[in-house]
Amino acid sequence: MGYRDGISVGKEASAQEGFNVGFKQSAHDGYKWGNVRGIASAFGSLPDDSKKKLLKKFEDKEKFHSLYESAQAISTDSALKIYYVHLLQNDKQFKEPLKGNTQESSASAGEESNSNELNFLLEVLTSLVHESSRIKSSIVEKSGFDNK
């Protein structure tokens, strides 16, 4: 009985530690991604009169709309898969550097571009808020967008 109990306790402790590490890694990024979707959705649902008041140039409305469409095109499941690939790629970089194999390099490049999609949209939002809108940049800073 003692041996089995020890294995069970060890597995539980290891699983809990893995969960804690994974949660710590993903919570901040999930928060930022939720803000991208939320801010883009909120801006997308505003009437044109309100958008005119928020934008320095009303022509930038299309940039915000494009961001909204891009963010909405990524489902929650897709965002989780993209994030998972990103974590796997980061783990691979630390464990085994690429050996120069062109097939591995091209596959890795494809994964990298996918994993950067969420960060790219975050950067687009940050840029739009800072450069195109009259929204105070402190909103972006408080949301953690400047702390990539």
From TrEMBL:
Task: Look up keyword Ion transport and say if it applies.
Answer: no
Keyword Iron in the entry? The reply is no
Domain Essential protein Yae1 N-terminal, residue spans: 2-40
Disordered as annotated region, ranges: 95-114
GO cellular-component terms in the record?
A: cytoplasm; nucleus
Q: What is its main location?
A: cytoplasm
Top-level taxon of the source organism:
Eukaryota
Which Pfam family name is an example for this entry? Answer: Yae1_N
Low complexity composition bias: residue spans: 104-114
Q: Which InterPro entries match?
A: Essential_protein_Yae1_N (IPR019191), Yae1-like (IPR038881)
Which UniProt keywords are present, listed alphabetically? Cytoplasm, Nucleus
Task: State the compartments where it is located.
Answer: Cytoplasm; Nucleus
Name of the protein: Essential protein Yae1 N-terminal domain-containing protein
Q: What species does this protein belong to?
A: Zingiber officinale (Ginger)
